[in-house]
Amino acid sequence: MFGKVLIANRGEIALRVHRACQEMGIRTVAVHSTADATAMHVRLADESVCIGPPNARDSYLNTAAILSAATITGADAVHPGYGFLSENARFAEMVEAHGLKFIGPSPDHIRMMGDKIAAKDAMRRLDVPLVPGSPGALESLEEARAVADQIKYPVLIKAAAGGGGRGMKVARSADELEEAWRVARTEAKSAFGDDSVYMEKYLDRPRHIELQVLADTHGNVVHFGERDCSLQRRHQKLVEEAGSPVLSAADREALGARVTSALAKLGYRNAGTLEFLWQDGQFAFIEMNTRLQVEHPVTEMVCGIDLVKEQIRIAAGEPLGYGQGDIRFAGHAIECRITAEDPETFAPSPGRVNTYHAPGGLGVRVDSALYSGYTVPPHYDSLVAKLVVHAPSRPEAIGRMRRALSEMVVAGIRTTLPLHQAVMDDPEFQSGEYTIHWLERFVAGRQG
Ligand code: MV4
């Protein structure tokens, strides 16, 4: 096992990785920008290294500074968290070239899944169900027309280098295709420096359901069930649940079996999440994320497992030590992402948190790097806390979340706490019957 791990991240996820390391007897090295010198992840780590100025480009994305920090502190491995360098294949390669372990998948698998066309190609060959669409990149407008005529409108043009909704354009009929084609390619070029695009049938009222997997370096692959992430606004997730309110145990098992067999054939290792759209009782793969995800705690709560410890053990070469049959799904978990934003306009609201009080009690977990007197810097992601509850059933989990939200205090800045309370109070949310479009309308209704 590793003696020391460098955590190449900040905020709640750096703390999350630190906690797993500490419980495993592994020392930790925090890295931080000058804006984060007094941050909680720096305070708790065994050692810390300043890696640059506030701008993430010069600090948390500064591979040379991070690798130097790992070398001078004698770290054995690097955990990238999520965001920043977590899905950068070049960084994973450089970590390994420095004789360190990258706590994540191989650079080749990161690269493959970063190319959405290559990812779909791989899943198609491995019999994972996909949205109907172009067999690969679209070479011309004529080809786009031919594919659209075959799969029927509405269609969606997506950037190969995309993800997260950027460079995505709907064409509802043949006369919208040329415009969608042009705009998608232009956006893809400017956002990713790559104008390759592909086409899919546009699903108009899907749910977003993703499957968590772990693979060790001995050929064992298991899944930990699904997360329903349908509550999003502008491609930012707000609430996530495990399991999905619409999925049966049989659906889960069938999908899990397909996916674990596919990833075993691919030789995938460490943690991964496959994203699906679910509509009319059918799953369609869209993308794979090759990192630990923000919403991983809901899976941990229902499965009773520590995904970060598992990632570390896998990177150290240990076998999983259990099989699919040992994984049980108990009760229901919900996560609310509390951000430093105005709850109605979503304008960023950094600044000093005068008072912070975290809720507690049975089945309540808070992953946060906040403390009373902390100043949320304006330079980074606005996530300040993940409030997670676990209860025997979905209605009980909602009741517990309402109670926990009412206890939580983050004073001095605006946060999305009131929006979460309104969502939890809403009968449609409580019914579990909604699509990816529900939250957008809910927020618009509150804005009046
Ligand atoms: C889609 C889709 C409908 N049909 N693909 C948005 C982000 C990217 N990860 C995939 N996205 C979508 N792909 C087809 N064929 C609708 C979306 C989508 C979406 C997906 C998940 C969660 C929220 C969303 C909000 C708008 C659009």
Please explain how this structure is put together:
With 448 residues, the chain is an alpha+beta fold. It has three domains: 4-103, Rossmann fold, CATH 3.40.50.20; 132-201, Dna Ligase, domain 1 (2-Layer Sandwich); 207-447, ATP-grasp fold, B domain (D-amino Acid Aminotransferase, Chain A, domain 1), CATH 3.30.470.20. It contains 15 helices and 20 strands. The strands form five sheets. It has an eight-stranded antiparallel sheet with strand order 13-12-9-10-11-14-19-17, with helices on both faces. The chain has a five-stranded parallel sheet with strand order 3-2-1-4-5. A three-stranded antiparallel sheet has the order 7-6-8, covered by helices on one side. A hairpin with a 5-residue loop joins strand 9 (207-215) and strand 10 (221-233). The protein is globular and about 60 Å long. The model has no long low-confidence stretch (mean pLDDT 97). Ligand MV4 binds next to strand 8 and strand 13.
Q: Low-confidence stretches at least 5 residues in length (pLDDT < 50)?
A: none
Number of helices: 15
Q: What is the name of the CATH class of the largest domain?
A: Alpha Beta
The number of strands is: 20
Measured distance between first and last alpha carbons: 56 Å
| Category from helices, strands and their pairing | alpha+beta
Quickly give the CATH architecture of the largest domain.
Answer: 2-Layer Sandwich
How many strands, which pairing sense, and closed or not: the largest β-sheet?
A: 8 strands, antiparallel
Tell me the Rg in angstroms.
22 Å
> How many separate domains make up the residues?
3
CATH topology of the largest domain: D-amino Acid Aminotransferase, Chain A, domain 1
Q: Helix coverage percent of residues?
A: 25-40%
Question: Mean of residue pLDDT?
Answer: 97
CATH superfamily heading of the largest domain: ATP-grasp fold, B domain
